[in-house]
């Protein structure tokens, strides 16, 4: 699934940037270090905004396209921050065959939010995940880490209502 770039405003701190620079310096001259740099950058910021990718590009002398290519290709990297209500729908095989595709489409429709993005006000994020190891409850999703299972798309409005206060 193609990832979407966020429209949520980037709010990195000087402290986060100092940590990021320290990570980049730690890997200076190490071959194949881009994956661990991006992983550690994501630990620092929670996701990989374009501003952070740009710092990494500048400091490592790596073309932006290359960094963006890696960040957008691997499912482990997030281009968007979690929303206050972070919805993650499993599209692993067991969930998919039990209709999780319909469920994620329903969230997308009701929230008017493309999969893989965060609403501009930062309230909701919607993402597809791989198997989260709860296949017995398929189809499964989490909202802010809380697991919901054995769902149909008819359950989606009720789940949203719980978080709409
Ligand atoms: S495939 Fe969805 S939890 Fe395993």
Shape: elongated
The CATH topology of the largest domain is what?
Answer: Glutaredoxin
Strand portion, in percent? 5-15%
Q: So what's the CATH class of the largest domain?
A: Alpha Beta
Q: How much helix, percentage-wise, in residues?
A: 40-55%
Query: Considering the protein shown, what is the CATH homologous superfamily of the largest domain?
Result: Glutaredoxin
Rg over CA atoms, rounded to whole Å, is: 17 Å
Structural class: alpha+beta
Strand order of the largest sheet: 2-3-1-4-5
Major pleated sheet: 5 strands, mixed
- Ends distance: 30 Å
User: How many strand units?
Assistant: 5
Features:
single chain, Glutaredoxin, binds FE2/S2 (inorganic) cluster, 2 domains, 165 residues, 43% helix, 7 helices, elongated, five-stranded mixed beta sheet, alpha+beta
Structural summary, described in words:
The chain is an alpha+beta fold and 165 residues long. It folds into 2 domains: 14-73; 85-163, Glutaredoxin (3-Layer(aba) Sandwich). It contains 7 helices and 5 strands, in the order H-H-H-H-E-H-H-E-E-E-E-H. It has helices at residues 14-26, 34-45, 50-60, 64-73, 93-97, 100-111, 156-163; strands spanning 85-90, 117-118, 124-129, 141-143, 146-148. The chain has a 5-stranded mixed sheet with strand order 2-3-1-4-5, with helices on one face. Helix 1 (14-26) packs antiparallel against helix 2 (34-45) and helix 1 packs across helix 3. The protein is elongated, with a radius of gyration of 17 Å. 30% of the residues are buried. FE2/S2 (inorganic) cluster is lined by residues 90, 92-95, 131-135, 138, 140.
């Amino acid at each position: 699934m193609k990832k979407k770039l966020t429209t949520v405003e980037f709010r990195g701190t000087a402290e986060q940037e100092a940590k990021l620079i320290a990570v980049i310096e730690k890997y200076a001259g190490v071959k194949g270090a881009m994956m661990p740099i991006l992983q550690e950058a994501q630990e620092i910021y929670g996701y990989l905004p374009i501003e952070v990718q740009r710092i990494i590009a500048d400091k490592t002398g790596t073309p932006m396209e290359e960094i963006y290519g890696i960040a957008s290709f691997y499912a482990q990297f997030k281009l968007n921050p979690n929303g206050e209500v972070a919805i993650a729908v499993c599209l692993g095989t067991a969930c998919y065959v039990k209709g999780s595709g319909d469920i994620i489409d329903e969230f997308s429709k009701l929230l008017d939010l493309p999969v893989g993005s965060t609403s501009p006000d930062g309230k909701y994020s919607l993402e597809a995940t791989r198997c989260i190891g709860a296949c017995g409850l398929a189809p499964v999703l989490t909202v802010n880490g809380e697991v919901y299972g054995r769902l149909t798309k008819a359950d989606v409005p009720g789940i949203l209502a719980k978080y709409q206060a």
